[in-house]
Structures are given as structure tokens and as C-alpha cells.
Amino acid sequence: VLIVGGDHVDGIKKIIAEFGHHQIAHWTGRKSGDHHKQIPQNTQLVVLVTSWINHSFTYAIKRAASKRQLKI
Length: 72
Hints:
The mean pLDDT is about 90. The chain has helices at about 10-20, 55-65; strands at about 1-5, 25, 45-50. The chain contains two helices and three strands, in the order E-H-E-E-H. Helix 1 (about 10-20) links the parallel strand 1 and strand 2. It has a three-stranded parallel β-sheet with strand order 2-1-3, with helices on one face. The protein is α/β, with parallel strands linked by helices. Helix content is about 30%, strand content about 10%.
């Protein structure tokens, strides 16, 4: 699972873990390098915390996830 956005996502990680997902990556979206990262190959789900990332980054993540038919 990849969480994009948000600074403090421990609560979200806990909920995701309760559903059986234990490999969880987090990109805050605040670092300029985050905008150029590729979604990891083993990702099955992308969680967007949209109140903490800009619109263009949100759209880019959604497009990348759609191309790989990932759940968002």
C-alpha cells in the first residue's frame, strides 16, 4: 500500500494493517522529489490524503495508478 499526502499517517497505517496489508510506504508529497517518484511495483492500493498535496500531484498519482489498474 502506498499512502500519498499527509504528515501524520499512523492512524491510517493502523487501519490498513487491520485489513492485512503490512507493507506500507508513505510519501508526504511535500518534497520536490516525491513528484518524480514511480509507484513501487508491489503496490496494490494507493491512498490519497488530498488535503495535504497539490492538485497536479494528485492527478499525476491518479493517472499512474489508473495505468496500472491499481485501486485508489
